[in-house]
Design brief:
- There is one protein chain.
- It is built from 20 helices and two strands.
- It has a two-stranded antiparallel ribbon.
- It is an all-alpha fold.
- The termini are far apart.
Amino acid sequence: MSKPKASIFEMDGVPEFSQALPLALQHVVAMIVGCVTPSIIVAGVADLNPADRVILIQAALFVSAISTLLQLFPVIRGKNFQLGAKLPVIMGISFAYVPSMQAIAGQYDVGTILGAQIIGGIVAVIVGLTVKKIRILFPPIVTGTVVFTIGLSLYPTAVNYMAGGTSSETYGSWQNWLVAIFTLAVVTGLNHFAKGFLKLASILVGIIAGYILAACFGMIDFSGIGTSGFFQLPQPLHFGVSFEPSACIAIGVLFAINSIQAIGDLSATTVGSMDREPTTKELQGGIVMYGIENIIGALFGGLPTATYSQNVGIVTTTKVINRCVLGLAAIVLIIAGLVPKFSALLTTIPQCVLGGATISVFASIAMTGIKLVMQQEMNFRNTSIVGLAVALGMGVTQAPASLAAFPDWVTTIFGSSPVVLATIVAILLNVILPKEEKRQSTASK
């Protein structure tokens, strides 16, 4: 007798392929646009040639897939420790690093981002090993402030893309804005009025609709697809690796924050789909592997990864927690990452289409930050933390000349991206400012 197949509603075992494939493709559809967009943005800032853009996108898909598999199926498993979360999560290239990566790519190159990513991976490993002790430094008021600042800092990128991209000769043209607003309208309409697959794939469908309209305006150049091959293995160290101290500090701080943020996604996964909190073993293994997979990913040219909240949403909604289903999604990503023509096709998406599709994503990131902040009472102390951290973070980066008298490394760390400064200010204020109860009790004496 053949062994019965596992249920898709249990973590272990192999389910029916006919059941697993559609569910796996659902995960791929939900994350693939978000996975490659940071690479497209960074490639534009770094002014990479078409061939290198394809390689960066290929690396994004390949590294995301490998990172997902390492989280799903721990390579080391012991009684009190495992290397990987062993939870149903999808890893992908993270938007959280985009503001800092843009600054580093503009001043240095992609290799400097990857060098900083290796240092960031080491930071994440340390955070994972000491997560119990340092978690107290990152309550929702701090992580929420950081996530909110990330969302705010990405808005100019989206708007510039909607206008056609600052390097475009047609920047700001009515055609660019028409295509961008049309794309945004499709995404927003599907998000609020559609159900099932169309709602889940709203960003993908919006991009396809915007792409078709852009083609009608003659905005798409297919020449790069013809020169791309049908199969190409990843190219380790293609962009090189270099270590610039200021870039390493900026990215390292973000890795510490995102390591703590991963606790939220892992917790949401287990609470929403299994009605339990994640164990310390799962959290520690997930964060340590998060650091290791980013070190490996940097060597393959993949930008920083993180847990994908949209896929957490799918898991908690469907209750499908079988790891083989998500593993199959990772295999689909690997196949896509080995086909240069597919990656080249993604590079033909006009910037106005990407802007129209991603501004809703960036808005969602900012709103997620607000939700985290609102988990704590918005008293005078907490509003001071959020307000001052965001004000200094956003204010300094929007007035870059304010740091002109300082060394270049100061500008790279604090003046290029608002996220690092906002993070440091939020952590310091949260530690220094007295709790509301203490302040009231002191005043009453």
